[in-house]
Write a sequence for this structure.
């Protein structure tokens, strides 16, 4: 398993007797984009929550960088995560929210925050509070938060939700650039054309079961 950035083996998750993930295994190599596709409610988000150590699986193992996931989080700083709707301090601007997050580790400067925001079509000088942002703007801000510190591994659950077609292009092109710079990316989408366009490896999940395509 240590030859892979991420290795999931025989992972299952049940809640109140309902099997949500059924014996899932997948591996992601360093520097690749791995896409997980499937219909809504197929198990994609639950899989990502387990990988991100938000939910504890019923059985199976998850290793990131060769270490059990439950011993990784959250202090390594090697992982950027966007799962479901991003949460920010509503009274602060987008830039101030990212600045606050960046201050936790203090490894990037203001210019890097400006750059990632502009790469996603967000204006760092926009002083509006996040509560006035559209859903698409919040989504792009969440992607910016996941990417801004140049993590080794990025987990993005439906990153193109709630954004327009121009923003979809912007996001996909940005992910390709990060991949070329050496970032490993695992993302979900129920839009198969997006996965086909950028992913090196593709998995399909349905009713909690997964297979590689």
């Amino acid at each position: 398993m240590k030859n892979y950035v991420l290795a999931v083996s025989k992972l299952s998750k049940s809640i109140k007797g309902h099997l949500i993930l059924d014996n899932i295994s997948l591996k992601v190599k360093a520097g690749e984009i791995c896409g997980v596709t499937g219909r809504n409610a197929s198990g994609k988000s639950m899989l990502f929550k387990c990988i991100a150590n938000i939910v504890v699986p019923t059985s199976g193992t998850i290793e990131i960088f060769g270490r059990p996931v439950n011993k990784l989080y959250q202090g390594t700083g090697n992982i950027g995560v966007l799962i479901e709707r991003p949460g920010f301090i509503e009274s602060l601007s987008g830039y101030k929210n990212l600045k606050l997050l960046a201050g936790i580790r203090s490894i990037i400067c203001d210019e890097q925050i400006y750059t990632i925001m502009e790469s996603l079509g967000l204006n760092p000088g926009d002083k509006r509070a996040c509560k006035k942002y559209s859903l698409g703007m919040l989504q792009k801000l969440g992607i910016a938060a996941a990417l801004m510190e140049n993590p080794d591994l990025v987990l993005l659950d439906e990153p193109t939700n709630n954004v327009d077609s121009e923003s979809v292009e912007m996001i996909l092109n940005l992910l390709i650039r990060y991949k070329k710079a050496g970032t490993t990316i695992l993302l979900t989408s129920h839009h198969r054309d997006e996965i086909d366009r950028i992913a090196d490896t593709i998995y399909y999940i349905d009713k909690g079961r997964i297979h590689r395509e």
Remarks:
- The beta strands are 6-15, 18-28, 33-37, 59-64, 67-68, 79-82, 153-157, 184-189, 201-206, 209-212.
- The chain has one domain: 6-212.
